[in-house]
Amino acid sequence: MDVSRHDIVIVGGGGAGLRAAIEAAQNNPDASIALVSKVYPMRSHTVSAEGGAAAVARDDDNLELHGYDTVKGSDFLGDQDSIQYFVQEAPKELALLENWGCPFSRNEDGTVATRAFGGMTTKRTWYAADKIGFHMLHALFQHSMRFKNIVRYDEYFVSKLLVDDGVCRGVAALDIRTGEYHTILGRAVILTTGGGGKIFPFTTNGTIKTGDGMALAYRAGVPLKDMEFVQYHPTGLPGTGILITEATRGEGGFLRNNQGERFLVEYDYGVGTKAELGPRDMISRAIVQEIEAGRGFKGPYGEYVQLDLTHLGEDKIDSRLPFVRLLAKTYVGVAPVYEPIPIRPVVHYMMGGVDTDINGATELPGLYAAGETACVSINGANRLGSNSLTECLVFGAAAARHAMDFSAGSSDGNEAALTAQAEEEAARVDDLRGRKKGGEKISAIRRELNTVMESACGVYREQGSMQHGVGAVAQLRSRVADLRLEDDSKVFNTELITALELANMVEVAETLAVSAAHRKESRGAHTCKDFTTRNDDEYLYHTMAYHNPAGPRLGKKDVVLGKWEPEERKY
Ligand SMILES: Cc1cc2nc3c(=O)[nH]c(=O)nc-3n(C[C@H](O)[C@H](O)[C@H](O)COP(=O)(O)OP(=O)(O)OC[C@H]3O[C@@H](n4cnc5c(N)ncnc54)[C@H](O)[C@@H]3O)c2cc1C
How far is the CA of 372 from the centre of ligand 1 (A)? Predict the structure, then answer.
């Protein structure tokens, strides 16, 4: 087996991974930084972000306000030390990104333009029309190419963390092109593998978002934190789940029911004067309630409400929301300049993830995480739109600095032992390739998983269905051990990759269902019909899910409070 050695290994080539690689490479010209990604970096999910990235930029804004908005948005479950660090670093990170070539939209006077976003007190979302992810990822990717000491492993699938003497010292990765395994060693590893929205059937997430990094860390004994909190974005296209960005509402779009009413204004959904600019959890619930009250529209893919942009005018739509115009036309045959767009809530983002401290460090020495796969946590029970891209930059850079420090003070470990682990992993996966003796189909298990997760952990949750979900996912986990695979080829064996991803999805889903069923309150995106209010006396803590053969074992971690005292969350 090929063995290569670097100072650190970064798994993931999206916003967080590239930012981490640049930070490590720039500060340490003599160090070797491995960047491993299961897809070519530009195909990471970050590329599809539309609306923008948040950071204080205007005179009427300040760090205090961005911090408070984020804490309140998190329903007081976000850690206030991390949030303060985040808001303080955010403007610096976006300015850096601009220096590296990200073409942010401008005001008439040449300053950076900002737009309104849900739950934010003022306009603080920097944007590039409605294609921020595309421009941000390009800027990062191109900048990363300046550094000869970033060694890329494109289209390598990491399936195991290598741990020796209690320290994470590398990864075992399948070269998808050749089907051969590779041992990639480093004195520290950073996971930046993104979220896992694909465990749900109806999602804005790309096919590659299968929670791999979360599963890798979990199996290595690192707890997953706050997994019950899943964000539904209010405005997805029925059928495909393609995202229609929150920027549509930031630019002045309205939500309407089948009576033509702006229901967020007409009815009391707790978003007050914020109306369409309320936070995502609340607006998603309002849409579901409108539909349940008989005020939705019926369509081939279930009921929906409308997003009306017609009053914005063609010029504004073309300059600020050109991609939305194209998506609506292409995927639902609607011209937003003249007619409203059908939309319904769709799974978008995972607030939970690999438990890290403010430096990106996990409980396992040598293992770090950043971006959507990590839970620092700045997002708590509900993320504010446009905080995530900035989070990837701020904590990607921080994790890189701390991982480099760790790497400098650590040893290479026992190379023979590490390689032996990789050999064992290669043999396990080789056994799975074309495994005709199994009885279970990948597609069937994935479909069942999707169905269970939607009914157990949707916008509204009930104890009965969550408990049922816990049992059902545990069964699926045991069935994954008996997969049947047809393709025994080595080169680009996508069936094999899908099987590895499915095992990750099932494990991540189980932590989600178990964490959700245990939290007997309603907070942020976790809305439980049996326990309708937030219960700070009993549940103001982070849920920790630890790997255990019989199913996740739960623990607790204190929330870092600070100057913002928990209060009723009203807008
Ligand atoms: C449609 C859409 C629009 C969005 N719009 C916005 C927005 O406007 N503003 C905002 O703030 N947020 C937005 N978000 C959220 C935000 O884009 C994501 O949370 C963020 O981009 C995640 O970045 P990341 O670097 O953590 O992961 P990703 O960009 O998902 O990258 C993950 C990387 O990990 C690699 N990887 C994964 N598993 C493995 C493995 N097993 N082996 C090797 N490599 C692996 C992948 O190849 C990839 O390179 C949006 C999300 C979506 C889905």
Answer: 7
